[in-house]
Design a protein that fits this description.
The complex is a heterodimer. By secondary structure, chain A is an alpha/beta fold. Chain A starts with about 30 loop residues before the first helix and ends with a helix. A 7-stranded mixed sheet of chain B has the order 3-2-4-5-7-6-13, with helices on both faces. In chain B, about 40% of the residues lie in helices and about 20% in strands. Chain B is α/β, with parallel strands linked by helices. The termini of chain B are far apart. Chain B folds into 2 domains: about 240 residues, Rossmann fold (3-Layer(aba) Sandwich), CATH 3.40.50.970; about 120 residues, Rossmann fold, CATH 3.40.50. The chains are: A alpha/beta, B alpha/beta.
Chain lengths: ~300, ~375
């Protein structure tokens, strides 16, 4: 079933067009190709991907081949948003206004090394979509800590678990007053598809962050990627929302949590991942405390957005 | 038409007349008046370009790369630390074979902060795959920028081009410059026809992982392009001469034919050296001057004089003057001097002195070691 706005309600409604082709180099169970496959179904043929150093720069296949059926401009790690600014300007000047430039970058390239270029591009109102697929670490280089790595998580640069809290890039992005921000994850393909589709129709800077559970990085079985994504949402470790012109709206299971549905204990999500295997009781308690605090914030936002004054 | 203006305003004017689609730039002393003027051109509708006011020079070059990869003509300008911040993306533009054109206003590198001229900023970009021009007058600045597009965009070349000139000495000094009619510039410089571009109808992946053997081929192809660029620079310089009366080569020779010694310089100090040659000639000294217009590709085969005095306004610590050492490939007698770093004035008197020192077989840092 397709709604009048082009929104879909089930996986079977996804367009049959495929832009992520066979022969790509992703690991088994990789969430990135799942996310990109859905995203490109929504974005269509007239899309240009700008890809910095990240897993996708490997997945896209070895020269002279390509595994994606849209053109790709690879660019240096910290430069994707700036490179895409150039692409967007050229599209404007060369009268190719029906083409969407899309940055497809990891959390390392977005939260950390590419944050300046991203902030600059958003502040300039660059007409593009910036997608951060967040696997909560530098995965391409072999599982190192990033600004998106959660507290307590093992990585190859935090052997005893990360001592600091992750930052919230989507909230930093909100401070740029752009017309569209959304979070998503691959467990809800129709939600991801609809958000991509919606982003495509909007002019200006659009930001979408997709949680991408990584089997080798998070230390879980490759058959559990979707389950891991779903549980992240159900335990509140990941939250689904949209911010349209500054107005925030929670979606899916996250919205239901705010409406009173049970938030599953976060241990259920943590215990499935080898990267949290070493957690001490007090560390687990701290994770739960931080999560509760975060959900109090969400509750406050939810109440203010749904109050009758609005 | 004759304009009397600074090299920075002349740069902006030349960039405007080359009709770039996209300009991405970040302000830095002493380049700022270029971007200010370009912003004015764009906002007043005199130039139909998109001006991306980026948040850093690194992003300026990344944006130029993105736009150029789409088939747009691009321009940027920077100086000193800005150029150093771009370094990674300079390599990227070179290896991507994108004919971005950039002005670099030469300025010393800190610490300590120093806004005056030397050439260490651009010479540090030696191996990035950029064609490098140096100008010794505002007229050369104008002429080099327009020619840079034609050279870089040539299908036989497809390389980015940097035009450098000394901060303040040229950037903020007004000189008369002959500026041709726009229609004549348009005749000389046709619209950009890229050899490759990002196109949704032909979905290629540019810049993905390359195995060792094809990577080496990419490097080899770049070297060959630099070699071909020598011929293209000569051809374009000759065509410019026919059209506008000022012919250009890889080097500019002055009173070299019967010279026993030839001084070799680059940038604004060449104008002062030229005056020194005239003074020395009055005293019967058989001395000439070579001004290096291009540093990359390096025109060593043109440097055929037996005794050459090389004055470097730069230094590669642990080696010496960059140009001096590169010229060793010529196999001629060379006398190397390092002078004028951080904006130290090098007047025609200094050149006369350097000439006398070289004649006595001396070389070194002037005036710290030899004077």
């Amino acid at each position: 079933m397709v709604s009048f706005r082009g929104e879909i309600v089930a996986i079977k409604d996804l367009p049959l067009d495929e832009y992520v082709l066979k022969g790509h180099a992703a690991c088994p169970g990789c969430p990135i190709t799942i996310a990109l496959r859905i995203a490109l179904k929504a974005l269509g043929k007239k899309t240009i991907l700008v890809i910095p150093a990240c897993c996708t720069a490997v997945i896209e296949a070895l020269y002279p081949k390509t595994a994606f059926n849209v053109p790709i401009l690879n660019i240096a790690f910290e430069a994707s948003a700036a490179g895409a600014s150039g692409v967007a300007s050229a599209l404007k000047m060369l009268q190719q206004k029906d083409i969407t430039p899309v940055v497809w970058a990891g959390d390392g390239g977005s939260y950390d090394i590419g944050l300046q270029a991203l902030s600059g591009a958003l502040e300039r109102g660059t007409n593009f979509i910036y997608v951060c697929y967040n696997n909560q670490m530098y995965s391409n280089t072999g599982i190192q800590r990033s600004g998106a790595t959660p507290y307590g998580a093992w990585t190859t640069t935090t052997w005893t678990g990360k001592k600091e809290r992750q930052k919230e890039l989507a909230e930093i992005v909100m401070a740029h007053h752009i017309p569209y921000i959304a979070t998503a994850t691959i467990a809800y393909p129709e939600d991801l598809f609809n958000k991509m589709k919606k982003a495509k129709e909007i002019k200006g800077s659009r930001y979408i962050e997709i949680l991408a559970p990584c089997p080798p990085g998070w230390r879980f079985d490759m058959s559990k990627t979707v389950e891991m994504s779903k549980l992240a949402v159900e335990t509140g470790a990941w939250v689904l929302y949209e911010v349209v012109n500054g107005k925030m709206e929670f979606n899916g299971y996250s919205k239901r949590i705010l409406e009173g549905k049970e938030r599953k204990p976060v241990e259920e999500w943590l215990k499935m991942q080898g990267r949290f295997r070493h957690l001490k009781e007090e560390e687990l308690a701290k994770i739960k405390e931080m999560l509760d605090e975060k959900w109090k914030e969400y509750k406050k936002l939810y109440s203010s957005e749904t109050s009758p004054d609005k | 038409m004759i304009f009397i203006d600074t090299a920075n305003h002349i740069s902006a004017l030349a960039a405007k007349m080359a009709k770039p689609h996209v300009i991405a730039a970040y302000p830095i002393t002493p380049q700022t008046t270029i971007v200010e003027r370009l912003a004015e051109y764009v906002e007043s509708g005199q130039l139909n370009a998109d001006f991306i006011r980026v948040e850093s020079e690194h992003s300026a070059m990344a944006a130029c790369i993105g736009a150029s990869a789409m088939g747009a003509r691009t321009f940027t300008a920077t100086a000193s630390h800005g150029l150093l911040l771009m370094h990674e993306m300079l390599h990227w533009a070179g290896l991507a074979r994108l004919p971005v054109v950039m002005v670099n206003v030469n300025r010393a590198i800190g610490p300590g902060w120093n806004i005056w001229s030397d050439l260490n900023d651009s010479l540090s970009q030696r191996d990035t795959g950029w064609i490098q021009f140096y100008a010794s007058s505002n007229q050369e600045v104008f002429d080099n920028i327009i020619q840079a597009y034609k050279i870089g965009e040539s299908e036989e070349v497809m390389l980015p081009v940097m035009i450098s000139y000394d901060g303040f000495t040229l950037s903020h000094t007004s000189m008369p410059v002959e500026v041709p009619e726009q229609s004549k510039i348009d005749e000389f410089l046709p619209p950009f026809k890229p050899a490759w571009k990002i196109d949704v109808e032909n979905p290629i992946t540019h810049g993905n992982i390359v195995p060792p053997e094809p990577y080496m081929e990419i490097r080899y192809s770049m070297q060959r392009a630099m070699e071909r660029a020598k011929k293209i620079i000569e051809e374009v310089g000759e065509e410019w001469g026919k059209k506008f009366g000022r012919e250009y080569d890889l080097i500019q020779e002055y009173k070299c034919d019967d010279a026993d010694y030839v001084m070799v310089t680059m940038g604004a100090i060449s104008a002062e050296a030229r005056f020194a040659v005239d003074e020395l000639r009055k005293r019967g000294e058989k001395v000439g001057l070579v001004n290096l217009r291009t540093f990359r590709p390096f025109p060593y085969e043109k440097l055929k004089y037996e005794k050459m005095i090389v004055i470097d306004r730069n230094v590669s610590p642990g080696l010496g003057g960059v140009v001096y050492h590169e010229m060793k490939k010529t196999g001629k007698d060379l006398y190397g001097f390092i002078a004028g770093l951080g904006g130290v004035d090098v007047s025609y008197k200094d050149f006369e002195r350097i000439y006398e020192l070289a004649k006595r077989g001396k070389e070194g840092w002037y005036p710290l070691e030899v004077k």
